[in-house]
Design goal:
Order of helices and strands: HHHH
Oligomer: single chain
Low-confidence stretches: none
Helix content: 55-70%
Strand content: under 5%
Structural class: mainly alpha
Number of strands: 0
Distance between the termini: 84 Å
Shape: rod-shaped
């Protein structure tokens, strides 16, 4: 179909001129009424069907909106799935913070003991440096030897 056809329009060829007045409008009124009536006749079955199905269409539209809202709430950028992951991450971090704080308190006590308690200093020297008092023996366990397994013979040369 060519949008720029040179054929004149079938029913109304030109608009009435202002000097023709109401007479021209009145002469063309039956044509306009017939055109409007034909449009109404064509559109009436479709409009009646839409009107008859209005509740079903509205129900389907509401159901689609509810499903899309549910999907957005569950899987959206800040949905429940993301929230649960963030919550688990938060709890894991809280546990780690608690553990680090406990370790920090233990190390603080150990440092205070090493600064002030002579027995703690002596204990650390014996454990870490292997020092001993006169008459004491330091037992150092032998390092376990690894069993060497001979490599499997996978040679292909003959």
């Amino acid at each position: 179909m060519n949008l720029f056809s040179t054929k004149p329009m079938a029913r109304i060829r030109r608009f009435p001129r202002p000097e023709d007045g109401w007479r021209a409008v009145a002469e063309r009124a039956p044509q306009a009424e017939a055109l409007a009536e034909s449009w109404i006749v064509r559109a009436r079955p479709l409009l009646l069907e839409i009107y008859r199905l209005r509740r079903r269409v509205a129900t389907i539209a509401i159901a689609i909106m509810a499903v899309s809202l549910f999907v957005h709430v569950m899987f959206g950028a800040n949905g429940m799935v993301v929230y649960k992951k963030k919550r688990a991450e938060y709890e894991a971090l809280q546990t780690k913070i608690q553990q680090v704080q406990t370790d920090n308190g233990r190390y603080t006590q150990q440092i205070q003991g090493l600064k002030s308690d002579q027995g703690a200093i002596e204990k650390e020297a014996r454990e870490q440096l292997g020092y001993a008092k006169r008459g004491e023996y330091v037992y150092v366990p032998p390092t376990p030897q690894q069993k060497t397994v001979p490599p499997a013979n996978h040679s292909t040369k003959k």
